[in-house]
Amino acid sequence: MEDNSQQQDTSTVKPPVTSVGAIGWVRTNLFNGPFNSLLTLGVLYLLWISVPPFVRWAFVDSVWMTDYMACRNIDGACWSVIPANLRFIIFGFYPHDLQWRPLLAMIILVVMLFYSQDRKRWKKSLLYLWGVALVIMGLLMKGGVPGLTPVESSQWGGLPLTLLLSVFGLASAYPVGIILALGRQSKMPVIKSLCVVYIELIRGVPLISLLFMSSVVFPLFLPEGVTVNAILRAQVAIIMFTAAYIAEVVRGGLQGMNKGQYEAADALGLNYFQTMRLIILPQALKIVIPPSVSILISAFKDTSLVVIIALYDLLKTTQSTLSDPKWMGFSAEAYIFVALIYFVCCFFMSNYSRRLEQELNTDL
Amino acid sequence: MKLFKICLTLILTFIFISSATVMAGTLDDVKAKGYIQAGVNGDLFGFGKPDEKGEWKGLDVDTARAVAAAVFGDASKVKFTPLTAKTRFTALQSGEIDVLTRNCTQTLSRDTALGLDFCQVNYYDGQGFLIHKKLGVKSAKELDGASVCVLPGTTTEQNVADFFRANGMKMNPVVIENTAELAKAFFAGRCDCLTSDASQLAGTRAVAPNPGDYIILPEVISKEPLAPAVRHGDNQWKDIVNYSVLAMINAEELGITSKNVDEKLKSTDPKVKRFLGVSPGNGKALGLDEKFAYNIVKQLGNYGEVFERNVGTDTPLMIERGLNALWTNGGLLYSAPFK
Amino acid sequence: MDNVSSEKTSFFRDPDKLALFYQFVVMVGVGLLAFYLVSNTLANLERQSIATGLGFIDKEASFEIGESLIPYSAADSYGKALLVGVLNTLIVSFIGIVLTVILGTILGVARLSSNWLVSRLSAVYIEVFQDIPVLLQLFFWYAFFYEMLPSPRQALNPFTGLFLCNRGMIFGVPKWHSAHGYMIVAFLVACVIVFFLKRWAKKRQEATGNIFPVFRVALLLFLGLPLAAWLLGGAPTEMNAPRLSGFNFKGGVSVSPEFAALLLGLVLYTAAFVAEVVRAGIQAVSKGQTEAALSIGLKPGQVLNLVILPQSLRVIIPPLTSQMLNLTKNSSLAVAIGYPDFVSVAGTTINQTGQAIEGVAMIMIVYLFFSLSTSAFMNWYNKKIKLVER
């Protein structure tokens, strides 16, 4: 063996063992220098004391499909809290035997999202497809057509409500945000100042104050006897909130436009609306797609605040389950489950926005 | 800016299309829409909380169902809106809900300043303290310097502060909006004691990891008559809610239960006959079906049945009737005669 | 306009008139909407005889607040209770911002580290903490604090003067002594000296090229002067140590679990975003800059201080500002875990007085004030560092 390898060494010169292969990788990436070596050891130690106990708690000592009695005397996680209450956590008050409908609606949404990922499919037809999909999802949720029993929107809850509030919120906030951004760029002082005041006002206050507004103050704004459904009120608050942030993102896109574009449009004799619709917005909106996705992500996370005004979104249904005497005390398990749902959704979206950013970058 | 206007109009129309108008009296309005919208707690086991299937359960929930049974003859024609302590009165004032059955304490200032009227009390409560045995505390007067978990509510915070001040003691409150979160914090030892209405204390103790370790201190520091509320000024609707609650109490007084109510229809007792609508008059006077009381008892049972089903000794709450027993049994329940 | 055509320009063709017209229409529209809402509100308040106005501010609050920077009792007014809330919000936001910037910078630098393990872990951290709603994180941390730590009677006592239990972290502080006053004065003096020293050193370097070791001298001054003052003041060592009495610890300074959970949740969440901001800022400085700086003989520390940081700060400051504002606004979620911040106190006030409009308006105005003043300060700072740039 010795001989053989030495013979090989003379024919093809290999790099030193210590810079290639597993050892070499470890050396260059983990132990290049005393500081890094110390850092690596410290981090490894931290992992060593934190990961094994967690694994033991979550997987080894845990129970998965039992009833609540079996959870009383174990050291590990009681994941049973999730399967036992899954349908309520996910669907809230939606009638039990009709829950295939929101499920189907969510599947359609996910399929549509996956389908629209590919930028080659971004055409007018996709927009129409989305319109059709949204109508179908709405019909599935609400019912009221032959064959589907109507379900009040006050009975919507859980994950569909979270998705509805965020996706529909962003979809409706977008046009409002664009109008606000254009208004802020406008030369008309009244409109400009109105838009500036609105945007700064909304961006200066926490969402929770707007939600309080929608739940305790807004009803007083309406004439006697007129009421608006609580979900819709929260939805309007989320739209108002998101629109201000979108306006700022779109403004960034508008400011990124070359001045020549405006001048060229003027030279062609286009009026303001034509300039915006045909020249400026299509280009500006393309620039702002990645930041818009991050707004969608934060809108998705922010919908969890409706817990505070007692709407039964995903987080609230989970808490409601946890206030049941049978399942009280297993909050870590339930919260981890919900965190996982949020994480998967947001991770998917943020990865996508990053990829998109790269693709669009190379285009320019 | 045409776009702007169009959007504004669209948004406004959108809002108004999806809004319902309640201009007429509540009864007509409720009959027109075919159901009652009731405001409930949502987090309070035994009073108002959905179960695993999303079905609403609880004493307050059943009170609202009783009103539906009285109005429609069908206890299921009611929809529930979960409300927080903050949103509950606004929801009633604005007409979003028709009746508020959310363990609300009747007080003078609420009755007068908030534009609402309280009806017949459906649960007599009082604020007390729950504490771990090992602290060796025998009386609330020994709680000087304690950390106190305060269940969210409006009078609760004030009562406990008043109690500590009146006795020259210091306290350290921990106030959390969410009932479940607070109970968990208490069991983990975040606070020395938990204060709330006695009914909730019993419920909280029942779900403790080791219920025997906790005791409820003898002091009751407040009176908490929990009553359904309606909007101020609609007397007919107030009467209906009032007599729906009283019907359950009266049924218990008369010994009528959901099981024997059909037999009792044949009773010759004039009180029973009037109550069940066999001799007509009561229903018409309220603007309801003559059989409204029959419907309530048939579908939900009398007060005793409702109590035992939701909060009684066979439930995890294990609450004794106590103040909520009939006056004949040493309690406070005393129905106005149905005549 | 005359030279275009002699005929009168139609009203709808004249951009100036049209602009006026549009503005007029919008103004009337907004005015009508406002009138509609206000008149409805007034009618509703009147009809339901709901009290209005800020009269409640002077009334007795009659509820206790768990923690307060200023002395407060239930006998004080609503106004004072609200002030306690504002101060609580401010303190948690301020400490939160400082810690977030520190942790975020560490994470951002770690993300770019050549150490594979460190950069991977940092990436995982950023991804996980960004993608979970902050409210959920707060619930989680709060549960963590009170479930993991023992009760006061079995409090952990890692070293003298510090106790950890589910009532919070209690630590001893030195008992007040006049020497401590001298120490503060000495520290302030050190600050002034260092300020002038820095200016002098800079001038000298520009004139002669000699570098004065400002950092080391400053450190010496900052530590040495207060120490000297302490010794001269008689070197008091008496501590105000916490001890268990009754239900809880007396004496010392305590940090409640609510405060700790809120702070931890906000810092861990926001730091993930700040890390991304810092990473982007550092990456925005091209690699050639570092190489050039190294090639003219600057040490790595100097490269970071003199070349990279001044440039990347320009990129970092604006998004960092908005993250700071986010942290301040998110501190309003305290209401969910029982920390008596402004929203929580205002919420109790709304509950007790029934005056929702005034309460919500106050919440909005206070946060608006925080936001506007923070962004004003950061804009000023941003301009300042921009001027330094050439």
Automatic annotation (TrEMBL), chain A:
GO biological process, one term: amino acid transport
SUPFAM superfamilies documented for this protein: MetI-like (SSF161098)
UniProt keyword list: Cell membrane, Membrane, Transmembrane, Transmembrane helix, Transport
A Gene Ontology molecular function term of the record: transmembrane transporter activity
Keyword Electron transport: no
Short name of any one Pfam family annotated for the protein: BPD_transp_1
Keyword Magnesium: no
GO CC entries: ATP-binding cassette (ABC) transporter complex
Subcellular localization, as worded in the UniProt entry: Cell inner membrane; Cell membrane
Membrane association type: Multi-pass membrane protein
Domain ABC transmembrane type-1: 159-349
Cross-referenced InterPro entries: AA_ABC_transptr_permease_3TM, ArtM/GltK/GlnP/TcyL/YhdX-like, MetI-like, MetI-like_sf
Transmembrane segments: 35-55, 100-115, 127-149, 161-183, 195-218, 230-250, 287-312, 332-350
Family statement drawn from the similarity comment of this UniProt entry: Belongs to the binding-protein-dependent transport system permease family. HisMQ subfamily.
PANTHER family from the UniProt entry: INNER MEMBRANE AMINO-ACID ABC TRANSPORTER PERMEASE PROTEIN YHDY (PTHR30614:SF41), MEMBRANE COMPONENT OF AMINO ACID ABC TRANSPORTER (PTHR30614)
Protein name, as recorded: General L-amino acid transport system permease protein
TrEMBL record, chain B:
Key word Lyase present: no
InterPro entries per UniProt: Bact_solute-bind_prot3 (IPR051455), Solute-binding_3/MltF_N (IPR001638)
Entry's Gene Ontology BP terms: amino acid transport
Family statement drawn from the similarity comment of this UniProt entry: Belongs to the bacterial solute-binding protein 3 family.
Pfam families: SBP_bac_3
Signal peptide: 1-24
Protein name (database record): General L-amino acid transport system substrate-binding protein
Keyword Phosphoprotein: no
Superkingdom assignment: Bacteria
Gene3D superfamilies, per database record: Periplasmic binding protein-like II
Keyword terms of this UniProt record: Signal, Transport
UniProt domain Solute-binding protein family 3/N-terminal: residue ranges: 35-264
CDD domains: PBP2_BztA
TrEMBL record, chain C:
GO MF assignments: transmembrane transporter activity
GO-annotated cellular components: ATP-binding cassette (ABC) transporter complex
Keyword entries, A-Z: Amino-acid transport, Cell membrane, Membrane, Transmembrane, Transmembrane helix, Transport
GO biological process, one term: amino acid transport
Domain ABC transmembrane type-1: 86-378
InterPro entries according to UniProt: AA_ABC_transptr_permease_3TM, ArtM/GltK/GlnP/TcyL/YhdX-like, MetI-like, MetI-like_sf
Family membership: Belongs to the binding-protein-dependent transport system permease family. HisMQ subfamily.
Protein name: Amino acid ABC transporter membrane protein 1, PAAT family
Organism: Desulfocicer vacuolatum DSM 3385
